[in-house]
Design a protein that fits this description.
Layout lengths: L7 E10 L8 E6 L13 E4 L2 E8 L3 E6 L1 H6 L7 E7 L18 E11 L2 E8 L12 E4 L2 E10 L5 E7 L1 H6 L10 E6 L1 H11 L4
Antiparallel strand pairs: 1-2, 1-6, 2-5, 3-4, 3-6, 4-5, 7-8, 7-12, 8-11, 9-10, 9-12, 10-11
C-alpha cells in the first residue's frame, strides 16, 4: 500500500527488453534521486508513476524492476527513459498524508487542459467512461502516483468523465506533473473505498 505522497523524483536510465519476444516485458534501471534506499530490500515494492513494482536489483543509488508486457499495456511512462514519481511502500508507523493507494493503475486518462490560475495550476483530465462512476467532487484520485483531490466533475455526452484538479506550487515543484501538456496520457487509480462501494451496490444485480 502507498499514500500517493511522492517521496522523490527518480529517473529511468535504461530500458532493457526481457527475453521472450514481443510478449516479453522490460527491465528498468532507475536512479532513485532523493529516495533513500538503505531500508529497501530485494522483493520490496516501490510505486513508479503510480504503478507498484518489485525491486529485483538494488545499489546505493539505483534499483531495477521488471515490468511485464501486461503492465506496459495498461500504463504510461514506464517504457522509455525519463523522470518518474517514486514512493516506497507504506509502513504502519507513517502518517497517511494522502489516501490509501494500492499502486494498481485502473486506466489511462488524457490531459484536456493544464494552465496556470493565479499562483496555482489547473489540471483537467478526461477519464475513460468506465471510471466515471468512481470520480466525485472532493473525492480522491491518483494521477501518475500523486494523491489529489477532485474539484469538479463533468460527464460528457460521449460518456467520458472530465474532472479538474488544483495543483499548488509545492506539488508542481516536487513531482513530474510539471511536464504534463494537453494531450499527455496519465496513469489513474480510483479511490479504494469507491471501488468496494461500487462492488457492494452491484452485487447480485442481473
Amino acid at each position: 500500500m502507498f499514500t500517493g505522497i511522492v517521496a522523490a523524483v527518480g529517473n529511468i536510465t535504461t530500458v532493457q527488453p526481457l527475453e521472450g519476444g514481443l510478449d516479453a516485458g522490460v527491465r528498468l534501471e532507475i536512479h532513485a534521486g532523493g529516495l533513500p534506499l538503505a531500508d529497501v530490500g530485494l522483493g520490496d515494492s516501490i510505486a513508479i508513476n503510480g504503478a507498484c513494482m518489485t525491486v529485483v536489483v538494488k545499489t546505493d543509488t539505483a534499483f531495477s524492476v521488471d515490468v511485464s508486457r501486461e503492465s506496459l499495456n495498461c500504463t504510461v511512462g514506464l517504457d522509455a527513459p525519463g523522470e518518474v514519481n517514486l514512493e516506497k511502500a507504506l509502513t504502519l508507523a507513517e502518517r497517511l498524508g494522502g489516501h490509501l493507494v494500492s499502486g494498481h493503475v485502473d486506466g489511462l486518462g488524457r490531459v484536456h487542459r493544464f494552465e496556470a490560475v493565479g499562483e496555482s495550476w489547473e489540471l483537467v483530465i478526461d477519464a475513460p467512461k468506465d471510471l466515471a462512476k468512481f470520480l466525485a467532487f472532493k473525492g480522491s484520485v491518483v494521477v501518475n502516483g500523486v494523491s489529489l483531490t477532485v474539484n469538479r466533475v463533468e460527464d460528457q455526452a460521449d460518456g467520458v468523465c472530465r474532472f479538474s484538479i488544483n495543483l499548488i506550487p509545492h506539488t508542481i515543484s516536487v513531482t513530474t506533473l510539471k511536464h504534463l501538456r494537453a494531450g499527455s496520457q496519465v496513469n489513474l487509480e480510483i479511490d479504494l473505498i469507491a471501488r468496494y462501494v461500487e462492488r457492494m451496490l452491484s452485487a447480485g444485480k442481473v
